[in-house]
Write a structure and sequence with these properties.
Blueprint lengths: L3 E7 L2 E9 L4 E3 L2 E2 H4 L3 H13 L6 E8 L3 H19 L4 H7 L29
Parallel strand pairs: 3-5
Antiparallel strand pairs: 1-2, 2-5, 3-4
Helix pairs in contact: 2-3
Length: 128
Amino acid sequence: METINATGRRKAAIARIYVKEGKGNITVNKRPLNEYFTVPELQYQILRPFAVVDAEGKYDINVNLKGGGIKGQAEALRLAVARALVKINPEDKQALKKEGFLTRDARVVERKKPGQPKARKKFQFSKR
């Protein structure tokens, strides 16, 4: 199997991954997964697509992550992993789609408007 690449995005985070057959090693920005994502819940979230298609420990993944916070990066990585698994085996698409792993969450922060402290918040009105 040749190297397969996929991209995932969430908020301001972008994850580019390169997948090849191996022993299940995941390297994120030249660090192991459990060292980069120290929160167990985020590690579980990232590895969930593998559990859905019974592919745990079958692929080595090299990840380039940039932008956003830790949660956005984890969700971007999960989307990229799901897309790569579909490229490897198109029959897995139905199971991953059912779990919601192939849906791009397009919600991003609304921009700040001039004359206001935040996007929607207004300064206190004073009549006199």
